[in-house]
Each structure stands twice: as structure tokens, then as C-alpha cells.
Design a protein that fits this description.
Number of helices: 6
Order of helices and strands: HHHHEHEEHEE
Structural class: alpha+beta
Distance between the termini: 23 Å
Radius of gyration: 22 Å
Strand order of the largest sheet: 1-2-3-5-4
Length: 226
């Protein structure tokens, strides 16, 4: 139309981006499922068999028996870690449980393991969301809470979600060790890059407020409207 703005190209580009985002997320979930099965079915079963053999073997001397018992204990611990890794990689059953219940479960399990209080306000996650956005927010919560459990040593955790100006904001806060946000990523927060990339696929944005000894707050913002 003369004097108007042709938005067809923009619309077509947006459709292609969304299609690519869905494809990439689907590929990631398929890879997670494959790794989960390999860890649980193959490596997990082999470790369980090795542990059983070690528990049954007796060398005939106190020193060797002690070493075998130690080896069996280490294999048991490794098997438990493999099980946890496989469980963490499993596809999220969001259709059955819903995003709110799934994120609440992640936070409840972690706080129970750490023995600390967990503040939650996730009513906003009860609202229907596009599948790729719901899955993205779940994975962000999973990664953030896993990092807190491994590295932050907090005394409390807060997980909240709110809607404002057609955007969903998921906030995950802890009062743990924090880190230098201006420094190059270390082993404790390499997952931040992956979270940023995942959010970018659905038009979202990740921001982090942190300082050494001051805890960390992670914000995941995603658009709810086109």
C-alpha cells in the first residue's frame, strides 16, 4: 500500500525465528533424553554390577578388605551421582504437572536437601504459556537451582514469578557466596552463557545481580505477546 509500511517481511522473519527456536529446543530435549537413558540404563547398570561384585569380594586380609570396602563405597557414590545426573537430564513432563508445580518441585527438593527455607510465589506460572517458553523457564530454574546447590552454600532461597507489561519475569535469589559478576566466568557459573542463549531463542533476556559474599539474584524475562 502506498505510503504504508510493509510488515510482511518482518512477520515472515519472526515466524522463521520462532520455528528455529522450537527446533533447537526440541533437539536439546532429544539430546537430554538420549543422555539420560545412556547414563541410567548403560553406565548406571554397569556401576551397580561393579559395586555388587566389590561388596561380595573378600581378600582375606584386613588391609585388603578395607580397601575393597572403600572402593565399593566410591562406586556406590559414583552410581548415585550418575543417577542424579540422569534424573536432571530427563525431559520435563510439563503437560501433566504444569510449569508452576514443576518449578515448585525443583525448589522444594533442593531446599529439602540443603535443609534451608525456600520462599516461593509462583502463581503467575499457573497461567497457560507457549510450550517453548514454559520449557525454557523450567530449564532456567533447573540450571539456576542446581548451581545454587553446588556452589552458593545459601541459608535461604527465593523463587518468584510475576507478569508485567506482557512479560513474564522469573526471579531466583539466594543469600549465598555470590561471585564477581565482572570477572570471566568460572566453573561455578559457566551455565550462565547457556541460559542466556536459551532465553534468546524465545526472545527472552537473562540478567544477574551478584557480588562476592552478597548472594545472587537471577532474572529471566520472556515476552508473552508477539
Amino acid at each position: 500500500m502506498e505510503g504504508g509500511i510493509d510488515t510482511s517481511k518482518d512477520d515472515s522473519s519472526k515466524v522463521r525465528r520462532l520455528s528455529l527456536a522450537r527446533h533447537l529446543v526440541a533437539v536439546q530435549e532429544e539430546q537430554r533424553l538420549r543422555l539420560s537413558r545412556e547414563l541410567h540404563d548403560d553406565l548406571g547398570q554397569m556401576l551397580a554390577s561393579v559395586a555388587l561384585e566389590l561388596h561380595m569380594v573378600r581378600a582375606g586380609s584386613l588391609e585388603m578388605d578395607s580397601r575393597l570396602a572403600r572402593a565399593a563405597m566410591l562406586v556406590d557414590q559414583l552410581n548415585a551421582r550418575v543417577h542424579d545426573a540422569a534424573w536432571g537430564l530427563r525431559p520435563a513432563d510439563l503437560e501433566r504437572h504444569g510449569l508452576r508445580a514443576s518449578v515448585e518441585d525443583l525448589a522444594t527438593v533442593l531446599c529439602g536437601q540443603l535443609g534451608i527455607p525456600c520462599e516461593m510465589d509462583l502463581e503467575a506460572l499457573s497461567n497457560p504459556l507457549p510450550a517453548e517458553i514454559a520449557l525454557t523457564l523450567y530449564r532456567i530454574a533447573q540450571e539456576a537451582l542446581t548451581n545454587i546447590g553446588k556452589h552458593a552454600a545459601p541459608s535461604r532461597i527465593s523463587v518468584t514469578a510475576h507478569i508485567q507489561d506482557d512479560r513474564m519475569r522469573l526471579a531466583i535469589e539466594d543469600d549465598g557466596s555470590g561471585f564477581d559478576g565482572s570477572a570471566e566466568p568460572g566453573p561455578g557459573h559457566l551455565g550462565l552463557a547457556g541460559m542466556k542463549e536459551r532465553l534468546a531463542l524465545v526472545g527472552g533476556r537473562l540478567s544477574v545481580e551478584t557480588a562476592r559474599g552478597k548472594g545472587t539474584t537471577l532474572y529471566a524475562d520472556v515476552p508473552l505477546a508477539g
